[in-house]
Amino acid sequence: MPKAYWIARVTVTDPERYSLYATEATKVFATYNAKVLARGGDFNAVEGNARPRNVIIEFDSMEAALDCYRSPAYARARQHRKGAGVAEIVLVEGA
Predict the structure, then answer these.
(1) How many CB atoms lie within 10 A of CB 88?
(2) Quick one: CA torsion of 79, 82, 35, 5, rounded to 10 degrees?
(3) Which of the chain's ends, N or C, has fewer CB atoms near its CB within 10 Å?
(4) What is the CATH number of the domain that holds 13?
């Protein structure tokens, strides 16, 4: 079964509130055996519009990635992100 990747592009507008989201979301990711591959590091925007924060999280499968996103625990964490930034999140199945 191929792995799946959660790819988020974020512009944080309220760092204090966003940090609450990041702390809670990280705990949720751990319960789904997810591995953070990139989180907010340096980047080069070589094409298109970029956002200042980019995150890539690896899951064992698309099912695990979807289960995490749809979980009540992640929904609670996501409440901290409301009003704290603008995010685009996609789940991508690996090759």
Answers:
(1) 10
(2) 120
(3) C
(4) 3.30.70.100
Rounded CA separation 67/20 (Å): 21
* Tokens standing for residue 42: 């340096």
The count of other CB atoms within 10 Å of the CB of residue 67 is 14
Give the domain range for residue 12. Answer: 4-93
CB-based contacts of 33, cutoff 8 Å, min separation 6: 59, 60, 64
- What are the φ and ψ backbone dihedral angles of 13, each rounded to 5 degrees? -110, -20
Over residues 63-68, the mean pLDDT reads: 98
pLDDT band at 92 (very low <50, low <70, confident <90, very high): very high
